[in-house]
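Priority: low. Protein: Universal stress protein. Input follows.
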Amino acid sequence: MSTASNGRGIVAGIDGSASALGAARWAASVAQRFGEPLHLLHVQTNGRSGDRNGDAEGLLDAAETAVRAGPSGVEIERSIEHGDPQKVLVEKSGAARMIVLGHLTTSEMQSMFRGSDVVYTSNHAKCPVVSWRGEPAPEAVNGRPVAVGVDGSELSNKAIEHAFEFASFVGAPLVAVHSWTEQSTLTYGEGSRFIEWDDHVKQQTALVSESLAGWQSRYPDVEVTHSVERGKPEEALLEHSSRAQLVVVGSHGRSPMTAAVLGSTSQSLLHHALCPVLIARAV
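Result:
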């Protein structure tokens, strides 16, 4: 089977937080299903008070202990790097298959002005980035659906590719989510009162089917359903996140400030989704 990423290994960022430990456990279950090693990575910020090798080793020890209590047979690698965590994570993404990080601890406004490792890495990484989150966040992959945002764009195709691959490896169904608003139609305005909306829904459903056709042929083991609904993309995907084990969307790689100001779908999901979120970049 061809893979959506040419990288090797699932990288889990370890910073001493409970969220990072949970993300590492989840990443281990992904690594087991994908047949990949799990790489536990801690980045020391040069000059930060109390940031010593002994402390870093202790954080990695705790993460490795937590991981080994989960899926068996996972090869574990670990390393300590020095520098800016955001830059190190992006550098590591060039050789990784996936990066998994804990959930955001800042609001959308704080992320816009102060920055965030999760947001920055998601916007610049060369491989998919997962923000581990949920209420409660899952300890491991499971049989719940994988939801993917579909809009017919090239970027959406990249998200679809990763969603199919993930669903196939973990044995989960896939839900293709496409939403639209009256404002997005060319005839929005006074003329919208005369639109046959049933016909418009059929057109939108056909767009989804066309976007999925090639991937369904490549991954015939994945059960696929469509969800075509009126509404904003971020609202539709957030609603599906309450029933999914993973939501997959694309990122244009905009700066954190621009993306937050524009209210992109990926930014909204990173802050509010009820399950882990995978951001796929069109590199």
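The longest helix spans residues 197-218. The chain has ten helices and ten strands.
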